[in-house]
What we know:
alpha+beta, 8-stranded mixed β-sheet, 7-stranded antiparallel β-sheet, globular, disordered N terminus
Amino acid sequence: MNAREPHRIAIIGAGQAGALLALGLRRHGCTVTLIGDRHPDEVRTGSVLSSQCLFGSALRVLSRIVDVEEDAPAIDRLALSIDGVGEVVSAFETPAYSIDQRVACAALIEAFIAEGGSFHVEDVTVERLDSLAAHHSLTIVATGAGDLGRMFVRDRVRSPYDRPKRALAVAYVRGLLPDDSGADLTISVMPGAGEVITLPALTTSGPCSILVVEAIPGGPIDRFDNVKTPEEHLRRCVEVLDDAFPKIAARARDIELTDDGGVLRGRLTPTVRRPVAFTASGHPVLGLADAVVLNDPLTAQGANNAVHAAGIYLDAVLRHGAKAFDTEWMHEVFESFWRNWGRWSVAWTNRMLTEIPEHVLDFVRIAADEPAVAGLFAAGFDDPSAVHDWWFDRSDAERVLDVVRSESTAVDPRALRNALGLYATGVTVVTARAPDGRKVGVTANSFTSVSLDPPLVAWCPAKKAPSLPDLVAASHFAVNVLAVDQHELSRQFATPAPDKFAGVAHHDGIAGVPLLDNSIARFQCRTVQRVEAGDHVIFIGEVEQFDTGHGQPLVFHSGGYRIAADHPDFS
């Protein structure tokens, strides 16, 4: 899509997801109207909107649209402590950041205006939404509050709770002392009571700390219902710490609020809603972020959900070109977000809100002495799909523990992986057909050419890969080289799912091997040799058929997706 395209897009809700999506679309030449409930200056001087923490995967999406605020303090280490069990201290692979959404959202709105976007302040009613939808090609609702939020029907299958699981109290403060573990982000769990989270952040007046109390409703630290003033809110926070979290209380002896707006209280019910609603005249509108996926802050995934959703919606709109934005497209866009990101953060958060499984508590005890195991916890905050194999199933946990321990050598695996990541590669999805007819697919960047005569290629799945037995049993495999706009497929095939091919356009090739449509190249191969090499297996295949398409390749470098470009010296 470019500036000559006729589409007119309206986004209602100028929070992180709505404002970020509007800015991204505008920077690609789209005609966008963004509607918020306040001017940027009013956002900055108002009350805090949330607690938040953006981890590496979300920051990579964010950096495609806007620069990350350089003054925000880096969050390098996590400490997760569970009363009576132990403490996990682990480093994040890349720093996380927390930026007060009063700062972030105001800046996004101003950047959008500077790009020529149309910004209006308005309290949009259901009737007004009907008019907006009638005059725009695509209308997106990015707020879950009020009547607009209630237009989106709760998805009962994806929403196990019908009431709040935590009472939330947030305070933006100065004077909080560092944790003696050296961790920046701390999560302290008291079973039966709730949790307290601390982290550094950037607010309207500079660096600060965020203190989050997550109380089990009706439990011993659920004490904020009768609080009236910011000062009383802070005193109640200190009382909770003194009574239930003495280690944090010692750090908070001299804390003070950053400003009178630096407090937030509330109870929310974690909810997934159906992504498409209809106005009175029958116009479809698409929900975004909190309008359709509302997550409890316990796992700090709300801001990450918002950024990932904005990135996926942005790519979907730009790919769609001049075609109409019908309800089928809207459902496909949301399902792409759900498959690739939303379901993992929702599943993990919902599990945390009930109780921590006993085998995970065992992991906490082990992690205190084994840094490689501790690293599993930090990885989960960056990408919740990373915990799915071991947080939910004891047998998977035992398998992951064996793998992690086997990789603990004199060479630091994380440092080696980062160094290897400096070698840029393409991204492929290797597919096969299991003997029982099931379709198999896995993302791989280990693909390489071996020989032209005979035509041989190779790739290397991990021995721990759940799909390895099916790959070994299959006679053929196909290597699908992904195009630059297929990064969602990379993630979809890299994460566990009952059906990785759901919603993916494909057709059958030799021996029934699935071939992904729109790949820029496909190689259909017969497996001729397998060689075990360390923790991987080298598959060598003879190319029996191949075809090529159009477009630029998806590139992976330094832990993120990249775009290939001509070198200026040779262009």
